[in-house]
Design a protein that fits this description.
Layout: H1 3-14, H2 27-35, E1 44-49, H3 54-67, E2 72-75, E3 87-89, E4 92-93, H4 96-109, H5 112-117, H6 120-131, E5 137-141, E6 158-161, H7 169-172, H8 176-184, E7 191-193, H9 199-205, E8 210-211, H10 217-229, H11 236-249, E9 269-272, E10 275-278, H12 283-292, E11 298-302, H13 310-317, E12 321-326, H14 337-346, E13 351-353, E14 362-365, H15 368-378
Parallel strand pairs: 1-5, 1-6, 2-5, 6-7, 7-8, 10-14, 11-12, 11-14, 12-13
Antiparallel strand pairs: 2-3, 3-4, 9-10
Helix pairs in contact: 1-4, 3-11, 4-6, 8-9, 10-11, 12-13
Length: about 375
């Protein structure tokens, strides 16, 4: 597809701010109520909520269903390199032609009042659901929270809950109880609760129509072997177990051959000798990384958003950091570089600005924006 066609959607989205200090929680439900009769929703929507692991859990599930022969869509956010990554259709990121055609349809369907006011994520969610019309399954990843998320306006068949931890406190609450309640309030029919690190989550989940996972010991062992044999980070075993719990509950069997060839971008992904990238950005992600690199030292190419508790994140990672390398990222949400450096020095972590890769085990970490900036420079 030519550049001109691609730019029509891009130009429209570029007028919308990616992030808001306040969110209008009524806007998306009201808009959806006005336009929903013009959509042919997928047969079964699987909603994925939680703090970490939504993207990999969703991709395991979507890939498995697609390989079984179903018509499958997977909606994720944000993207690393290109917008098309957000809308995955039957094994591939969607193409510009489909995006542009669907964008033009939406322009005709949505009243101008809402076209002007819908957020970037709200509009993108509607775009995805138009792309996924009449599919057998759609795996829909929540953006922020659960109850008031744009993805929660659709009737869902099942909710999968990945680990819930402290994050996005300004929107979701300051305690695990508040955050878990906000997220779990999005459950409508049934839910499968993945492995949790906070017992409070399971207590709150008991008030909803939810199940623990459906796998036996032999199946869990098969998952561990699959993760090891594919050189995936060990934490992905829990995410795969959650995805396959849904498969079993659907009576679709259990056969890991359907996952042959799956790729998980940005999830402790090894992209070169001694070089890994990870799009994580919160304390839970930091604890996972600490475990994956235990008894090793790494150079950490890092930056972070100003609303993240980077002192806690760096405190968690300190035992494995050889050197902290701060990468410049142009983004309104990125923290003041000098404040991050000051915090690292307070923690007695050797810190300098990132200039080039050294011949040393290195992880690029901190957010999708950090990984994107690194990869764009790295590819040059």
């Amino acid at each position: 597809m030519g550049e001109e066609t691609e730019l029509k959607l891009t130009k429209f989205l570029n007028k919308k701010p990616l992030f808001y200090k306040e969110i209008d929680y009524d806007r998306m439900p009201k808009c959806w109520n006005e336009i929903k009769d013009n959509f042919n929703l997928p047969k079964k929507i699987v909603h994925i909520i939680g703090t970490n692991g939504k993207g990999s859990t969703g991709r395991f599930l979507a890939f498995y269903l697609y390989k079984m022969g179903f018509n499958v869509g997977h909606y994720i956010s944000p993207h690393i390199m290109k917008f098309n990554e957000r809308i995955w259709i039957n094994g591939k990121d969607t193409n510009d032609k489909i995006l542009e055609k669907t964008h033009q349809e939406l322009q005709q369907l949505i009243p101008k009042y809402y076209l002007d006011r819908l957020s970037y994520f709200e509009y993108t969610t509607l775009l995805a659901m138009k792309c996924f019309e009449n599919f057998d399954y759609v795996v829909l990843e929540a953006g922020l929270g659960g109850e008031y998320d744009a993805t929660s306006v659709f009737d869902r068949y099942m909710t999968l809950v990945t680990p819930i931890d402290i994050d996005h406190q300004s929107f979701l609450g300051s305690t695990i109880e508040e955050i878990a309640t906000t997220k779990l309030n999005s459950i409508r029919t049934n839910a499968i609760i993945g492995k949790q690190i906070h017992p409070e989550v399971m207590q709150i989940a008991s008030h909803y129509p939810s199940f623990s996972q459906f796998l036996n010991e032999n199946e869990l062992n098969q998952i561990q072997n699959f993760i090891r044999s594919n050189n995936f980070p060990s934490y992905l075993a829990d995410n795969l177990a959650l995805a396959l719990s849904f498969i079993k509950r659907e009576n679709l069997g259990f056969n890991l051959k359907y996952l042959k060839g799956i790729e998980l971008k940005g999830r402790l992904q090894k992209i070169d000798k001694n070089l890994y990238i990870d799009v994580g950005h919160n304390p839970l992600a930091a604890r996972v990384i600490l475990n994956e690199f235990k008894n090793q030292k790494i150079n950490l190419v890092y930056n972070t958003y100003k609303d993240k508790d980077y002192e806690e994140i760096l405190s968690i990672l300190k035992p494995i950091i050889n050197k902290l390398l701060i990468i410049d990222v142009k983004n309104d949400r990125i923290a003041d570089k000098n404040e991050v450096i000051k915090t690292a020095k307070k923690l007695e972590i050797k810190t300098e600005e990132f200039k080039k890769l050294e011949n040393y085990l290195t992880l690029v970490f901190g957010s999708f924006s950090v990984v994107e900036k690194f990869l764009r420079d790295y590819e040059k």
